[in-house]
Design brief:
The complex is a heterodimer of chains A (227) and B (277). Chain A contains 4 helices and 12 strands. Chain A is of the alpha+beta class. Chain A has a 5-stranded antiparallel sheet with strand order 10-3-4-11-12, with helices on one face. Chain A has a 3-stranded antiparallel sheet with strand order 7-8-9. Chain B has 5 helices and 12 strands. Chain A: It is found in: Cytoplasm; Nucleus.
């Protein structure tokens, strides 16, 4: 808001004099803590991977803060964005899982968790959780969704096109479309994060992969660039 | 025949010739819904130290565009004269052009005086130019060299202020680097100790600041000799990918093909390899 008034200058001529009125300061309830998450599913497996760097601005808060959270023996969720909301959201999800277990006497299925998460997030439609979520898991029969993949978080725009090409066989002709195996998926996820760490400043330090098979959830940790 | 003088000294006062044009362009672009391109900042760690026989300058090699790495191995230590080098932080184009302009003017000046240029001269030229532009040239510099008066180190800020100091750091990683200097700096160090100190200061910036990364470049300037060590230390190697991502011929669909023959005689053939790291 500008208020202008006329003032007589030294040489007798009138000159315009402007000054701004009251200034509004804003408090932002959100912070961006970086991090990238990735989920891939095959015929009989699912994997959720994330880097372990927690940053803010140009600084690093922690080099060992993974963004995958194990919910049940068949489901893992990856959450990145504002770390405060990630922690609160996972706490709420875990509480809701317990409530479901106590009232229905069985564990929630992956699909049910996803549907529940949607309602939890929409409940805060007008003051959202600043979290990018990806749920990876197996269904009741121990099957994953064939050849599905999703990237979220700060480097998602770099990872998604490569996954579209390598897993979805998009933009390629005369290529044999082999179904995705667990070994190929793990190798691809590692390579893709190595590339993301090269160009995204928020991604790096280490990569944690949670591999979900009918045997349960297994973890693998791979070092990444630390700069 | 008129000779064109390249070394033009400004008449005095501020030069805001392009401000009106820039404001109009900005308004036009915003009306169309686009935003004007942001200047690429180097998000850097640069530092310098004076030791027994001269100065050691250090810099990282990452250039960022927002929070994406634009160049993984850019050179931030710029040549000013055979005995004076300058590290630059801030807007990449500004540091590059400013150091080149002053380097050119200094060479003409040195031919006119018949002497090796002095670090203080380069400092004076840089600060007067930056002040003239009132901070709009986003160049934060660490200027170091050895001349007839001895080894000298200056830090130059975008608004035109300078400090003559035994150790300086600039850029987004300057706090991390200064922490190392404040811990281990001593006057009159030996060359190896000074190089180790600068290397460790830049490494602190590389690992603790997101705007800095990749390798460490060093420049050791002594009386009569300059060691431009690029890279001095490859602190971060690219991770090794296990998969093979080469595409076979025919993977990209060809819609139409038209071949036009050029009947030419090959006179000379030369190969220049591209840096694909």
């Amino acid at each position: 808001m500008m208020i202008s008034s006329r003032v007589f200058g030294d040489n007798g001529k009138v000159k315009e004099y402007h000054y701004t009125g009251p200034v509004e300061h804003k408090f932002s309830p959100y912070a961006f803590n970086g991090g990238t998450v990735l989920a891939v599913a095959g015929e009989d497996f699912a994997l959720v991977a994330s880097d372990t760097r927690l940053s803010e601005g140009y600084s690093i808060h922690s080099r060992d803060s993974p963004k995958c959270y194990k919910l049940t023996d068949t489901t893992v969720i990856g959450c990145s964005g504002f770390h405060g909301d990630c922690l609160t959201l996972t706490k709420i999800i875990e509480a809701r899982l317990k409530m479901y277990k106590h009232s229905n006497n069985k564990n929630m299925t992956s699909g049910a968790i996803a549907a529940m998460l949607s309602t939890i997030l929409y409940g805060k439609r007008f003051f959202p959780y600043y979290v990018y979520n990806i749920i990876g898991g197996l269904d009741e029969e121990g099957r994953g969704a064939r050849d599905t993949y999703k990237a979220g978080g700060s480097a998602s725009a770099m990872l998604q096109p490569l996954l579209d090409n390598q897993i979805g066989f998009k933009n390629m002709e005369n290529v044999e479309q082999v179904p995705l195996t667990l070994e190929k998926a793990v190798q691809l996820v590692k390579d893709v994060f190595i590339s993301a760490a090269e160009r995204d400043v928020y991604t790096g330090d280490a990569l944690k992969i949670c591999i979900i098979t009918k045997e349960g959830v297994r973890e693998e940790i791979v070092p990444l660039r630390k700069d | 025949m008129a000779t064109v003088s390249v070394c033009q000294y400004h008449r005095g006062g501020f030069s805001f010739e392009n401000c009106k044009r820039n404001a109009l362009l900005e308004a036009d672009i915003n009306k169309l819904g686009f935003s004007s391109p942001a200047a690429r900042k180097t998000g850097t760690t640069i530092c310098g130290v004076v030791y027994k026989d001269g100065v050691v300058l250090g810099a990282d090699t990452r250039a960022t565009e927002g929070m994406v790495v634009a160049d993984k191995n850019c050179s931030k230590i710029h040549y000013i004269s055979p005995n004076v080098y300058c590290c630059g932080a801030g807007t990449a184009a500004d540091t590059e052009m400013t150091t080149q302009i002053i380097s050119s003017n200094l060479e003409l000046h040195s031919l006119s005086t018949g002497r090796l240029p002095r670090v203080a001269t380069a400092n004076r030229m840089l600060k007067q130019m930056l002040f003239r532009y009132q901070g709009y040239i986003g160049a934060a510099l660490v200027l170091g060299g050895v001349d007839s008066t001895g080894p000298q180190l200056y830090s130059i800020y975008p608004h035109g202020s300078t400090d003559k100091l035994p150790y300086v750091t600039m850029g987004s990683g300057s706090l991390a680097a200064m922490a190392v200097f404040e811990d281990r700096y001593r006057p009159n160090m030996e060359e190896e100790e000074a190089k180790r100190l600068v290397r460790d200061a830049i490494a602190a910036g590389i690992f603790n600041d997101l705007g800095s990364g990749s390798n460490i470049d060093l420049c050791v300037i002594t009386k009569g000799k300059v060691d431009y060590l690029r890279p001095h230390d490859v602190a971060n190697k690219k991770g090794v990918r296990t998969g093979n991502y080469r595409y076979k011929h025919g993977t990209t669909g060809v819609l139409t093909k038209a071949v036009t023959h050029l009947n030419l005689e090959v006179v000379e053939e030369s190969v220049q390899t591209m840096d694909t790291t």
